[in-house]
Amino acid sequence: MLGWLRKLFGAGKDDRGDRIPPEARALHEKGRALGGAGKYDEAIAVLEQAQALAPNWPHPTYDMAFSWLLKGDMERALAHYEKVEAMVPDHFFFTNQTAVWCLRGERDGRLAPGSFLAFSMIEWESDPAKKLDLARTIVAKCPDHSPTWLVIAQKASDPEERRTAMEKCLSLDADPITRDTARFIHANELVNAGRQEEAFKIIRALADAPDTVPSIKAFIQVQRA
């Protein structure tokens, strides 16, 4: 479901269209290509040029954050993810809230160092079995990593493992998108189990709460339509 939501609402959907200068878009693509080739310093330099041409466009800063993450500089990575959060305060950059929450947790000692870097590798792994193995390895070392428990709750083939992972995720502190996505998925599981009243109570709470992330509220509206 997380992947579907990213496609529907965008991990960084841009509604400014042609207002982004073509030169900024070209530099952004060049920076991403350099990062993909492991040339992180060059990537960051080019992405900084793109950002200068489009100061309110969050994509270059978001990709700079990931470049710093891959370089192992968690402090600078967090600083750039926080810049994106300031640019897009309504959680519209889907993975950014998770990044900020995780890296702050590492900084403050609540989460194991390097756990977000490991978590970010799950999305890049194409083999579903390897994705699940990566997730299991993370929670074995960092049992309070709620975003990873949510991955297991969605990816595991064993119903009992999925159930246990979801219970663990729901019991832990989490970033807003992980928290609300877990509640929404859990509600749908309750519907499938014939426990409609419990499910509808969760859905109503998500729909009515002022701090529910916009993507989940929008998905609830799609379901109700």
What is this structure's SSE topology?
Layout: H1 2-9, H2 22-36, H3 40-53, H4 58-71, H5 74-87, H6 96-108, H7 115-124, H8 128-141, H9 146-155, H10 159-171, H11 176-192, H12 196-208, H13 214-224
Helix pairs in contact: 2-3, 2-4, 3-4, 4-5, 5-6, 7-8, 8-9, 9-10, 11-12
The succession of helices and strands, N to C, reads: HHHHHHHHHHHHH
Strands, total number: 0
Which fold name fills CATH's third level, the topology of the largest domain? Serine Threonine Protein Phosphatase 5, Tetratricopeptide repeat
Return the structural class.
mainly alpha
Domains, number: 2
What portion of residues belong to β-strands?
under 5%
Q: Report the CATH C-level class of the largest domain.
A: Mainly Alpha
**What distance separates the N and C termini?**
19 Å
Radius of gyration, CA atoms, in whole angstroms: 18 Å
**Low-pLDDT stretches:** 1-13
In CATH, the architecture of the largest domain is Alpha Horseshoe
User: DSSP helix count?
Assistant: 13
Helix content estimate = over 70%
- The average pLDDT value, as a whole number, equals 90
The largest sheet is:
none
> Could you say which overall geometry the principal axes of the C-alpha atoms support?
globular
